[in-house]
Prior knowledge:
Blueprint: H1 6-11, E1 52-58, H2 63-73, E2 77-83, H3 91-101, E3 107-111, H4 115-121, H5 142-149, E4 159-171, H6 172-177, H7 186-198, E5 204-205, H8 211-220, E6 226-229, E7 232-235, H9 240-254, E8 258-259, H10 266-273, E9 279-283, H11 286-293, E10 301-304, E11 318-326, H12 333-345, H13 347-357, H14 386-393, H15 406-421, H16 427-444, E12 449-451
Parallel strand pairs: 1-2, 5-8, 7-12
Antiparallel strand pairs: 3-11, 4-9, 4-10, 4-11, 6-7
Helix pairs in contact: 2-13, 8-9, 15-16
Amino acid sequence: MKAGIGRRLWALAAGVPLVFAAAACGGGSGGTDAAAGGGGGPCTPAPSGQKVTLSFSSWVPGIDKTVAVWNKQHPNIQVNFKAVPGGGSGTYQTYSNQLKAGNADDLGQIEFDTLPAFRLQGGLVNVGSCPGVAEAKSKFLDWTWNQVSFGEPGAVYAIPQDTGPTAMFYRKDLFAKVNLQPPKTWDEYYTTAQKIKAAGGFVTNFDPAGGSFLAAMTWQAGGSWFKANADGWTVDMTGGKSAQVANYWQKLLSEKLVTTYPGFTDQYYKALDSDKVWTVISASWATKLIETGATKTAGKWSVVQMPQWNAGEKAAGNVGGSTTVVFKGSKHPAEAAEFALWLNTDPQALTMDAKLGGLYPATMKGPQQVPALSQPSPFYSGENIWSQFATASQGVPAGWMWGPTMVQTYADLSNGLGLAVQGQGTILQALASAQQKTIDAMESQGLQVQGQG
């Protein structure tokens, strides 16, 4: 979102309820600046010596140990941690219900693509004026800060936590066997796919429920499904870059150059283990999934930058990633923001969450920042694959914007993609159907929307 238009745009939606895929959740309105949680005053820390207790929930494995380090180092600001299931597994619904009831935790974890929904609900504190927040901007990747500011000057509705920069995993041994080099452009990738098929394999897998994958591919191409201005929202999931990406993957699908297993399932891992699938286009978090799911391929993989639309470019997409938010109603937004900053910038905290929780930090501008992400990986041919993701993270375009009903958008898109892989429609038709249903859902919330494409 462009600077200067965000505040007016979000004002259009004040009091609008939050909607998820299968059910509507009650909304909530009211102020969302730091004062909203601080009794009407600025984001001022508690008096010196006063003890503060905060509540924080997250689904990151091992993050309780990181919180314990904070508590040991900060005796006057104690954090009570609560483990919760992943956001889409009920936690977002719980957050929304708690906000409506006025009993939300001080802090919680929300993924980038769901953040706009909670912003619309009026459930997030703008911590931009809290001590240290504005100064921390330079520590984070530019595109992640854009995701949490919504284009509002000085606004910060969350502290970026982790990201999912995309790269290409490829079977180094299989490529060498048939004298193939990793493709550097999407045109080369298509040609490579034909050669792999001739050798009895498939270039990659296209997940029938891969809405987030399609979003990442469009993001890498420089497109965006949502735009916002002072007059409302524009939804364009079928024009320009979206159509380019959809038609490309439709060609691979129609020519049976890809498998269509549900992603990261036993079927999928079996295809990897049996040398059926030769490349994986995915995010940094997939490294562990492949390592633990396709154990027979240990030492046979390598990681390079994903193919580009134009030779010489260095763009990447992003799949996943999350933030730490301060919820409306927190009585201590300054201390909550202080903890969120520490959690997502302190070297010890970053190292622990990378090792224990598999997080790829939103501050990751180079692998040297986190020693755990600077080591060679035996599973990946003894290479330091994290340097590839560090490069990719800096190539993610800053212009992508998420819509306010992404869970529903993904569900509708997955339905269409499921039909497309069965030959009952196309990827572009799936996008068109999801676009119309997204527009309908947004308009039902009172938002001003127009579709393009």
